Amino acid sequence: QSPRHPWWKVFDAVFLGAAMQIPSLLQIEAECRGGALAKRIGSISDDTIGYALQRQSPEPVFALGCEVARRLKRNGVLRSDWSRGLVVAAVDGIEICSSFTRCCDGCMRREVQHKVRGELRTDLQYYHRIVAVVVVSTPVPIPLGVRFQKDGETEVSCALALLQDLVHHLGRRFLDLLVGDALYLQAPFVKEIERLGLDWAFTLKQNQPDLLREAERFSAGPPAGTESEAGRQLHWWHLPQLDWPAGDRLVRVVKTVRTERKREVAVRPEGDRLNKCKSEVAEESTNFYATNFDLGAIPPLFIHQLSRSRWRIDAEVFQTLTTDCHLKHPAVHQSTALVVLTMIRVLAYTLSLVFYHRQVRSHARGPCASFHEFAKRLAYAFAALSPDTS
After folding, report:
1. Fewer beta carbons below 10 Å: N end or C end of the chain?
2. Which of 387, 323, 375, 319 is nearest to 351 (CA)?
C-alpha cells in the first residue's frame, strides 16, 4: 500500500540497468548505491527489486511495449523498401534458462540424461521458453512482444496466443505478413492467423509430407528463373496452386536451389609432410516455401526474400539479446518476476538499439562503436549527468 520504493523507481532501475547491459540485480544494486545510477535512482537493494517484480502485473509492461511499437510505426521507423511497403514479422521460440535445482511455479519440466561425477543419470530439469514476434522487414529488427510458454503448452499455441494479444493491442492493420520455420506450417495455426487478418509464408519440410511430395514432383523440371551473383547462383520454381491435403486448400509454393562457391582449406599428405592447399567447393541448399500471399505482378522470388528474412530473429535479435543483454541470465527465478524482468529487458533492448542505429551509427563519420560499447557509454553518461540536466 505504501512502499518505501515506488514501482517507477524499481522500473527505472531495471530498465536503465538493462540498457547498460548489466546481467544481475546485485550489480544493479551496486550501481544504484554508488555507481552509474546513484544520481538517477538512489539506493535500492536487489531484494526490493525482486520483491517488486514478483508483485507487478506483466500486462502494463506488455501494453507499454505495444505503445512503443505503435509510436515507432507512426514515426516511420518500420518503413522498408525491399518488402514493398509490407510490415513483415517473424515468430520463433528460444529457451532462456534451465536448472536441475532452481524452479518456480512457471517452470516447464522434462527428464534429461546428464553426467554427474562421471556417471550417467536421468534427472528432472526445470526450464523456461519464450516465443517472440519481431518485425524483420526493417533495417533494424524490432521486437513487438514476448510470451512465456507454459508447461504442457506447445510453441505453436504459445505463438498464437501472443499474436492474438498483439492484434488486440496494436490492431489488425499493424502487421501485414508473418514468416516462420516449418514448425508453424500447421493447418489450425494457419487458419487462426488468417482470421487475424495476416498473410503468411512458412518453410515447407517433412512435417507436411504430402505437400512436400507434391512440390518435389511438380518442380522436377527446369527452373522458372535463375539469378547469378559473384560466387552464387539461385534457381527457383513457382507453383501457384498446389493442393495441401492437411489444410484442405490450395497454397502457393516456391522452391529455390542455391549454389554457393566457397574456398576451403584441405590438408593433403605428400610424402612425410602434410601440405595445406585451398580448393573451391560448391555448396548446394534446397528450400521450399509455402504461402497464401497473392503475388499479383510481384516476382515469385519475393517469397524467397520474405521467408529468408525470418533468420534475422535468430541471427540478430536472439543472438544480441543472449550475448550482450543477458537474456539467458535469469537474475531472479520467480514466476512473475522473471516474466516482468524479461519484458523490461526486451523493451530496453528495443529502444536502445533503435537509438543506437538512428542517432549514433547514422551520424558517425568514421568507425562507430559497437552496440556493447554504446551501452558502456550510456553508463558513463548516467554517472555524469543528473536527472534534472538530462
Report:
1. N
2. 375
Tell me which residue has cell 487475424.
196
pTM of the model: 0.90
Q: Compute the distance between CA of residue 71 and CA of residue 86 in angstroms, rounded to an integer.
A: 17
Partnered with residue 249 across adjacent β-strands are 244
State which amino acid sits at residue 346. V
What pLDDT score does 188 carry?
96
Burial of 107 (0-12, 13-18, 19+ CB in 10 A): buried
Q: Name the H helices within the chain.
A: 7-19, 25-34, 46-54, 58-74, 155-170, 187-195, 209-218, 301-308, 312, 319-323, 335-355, 371-384
Pairing relation of β-strands 108-116 and 249-270?
unpaired
Predicted confidence (pLDDT) at residue 272 exceeds the cutoff of 80? no
What 3-state class would DSSP assign to 354? Answer: helix
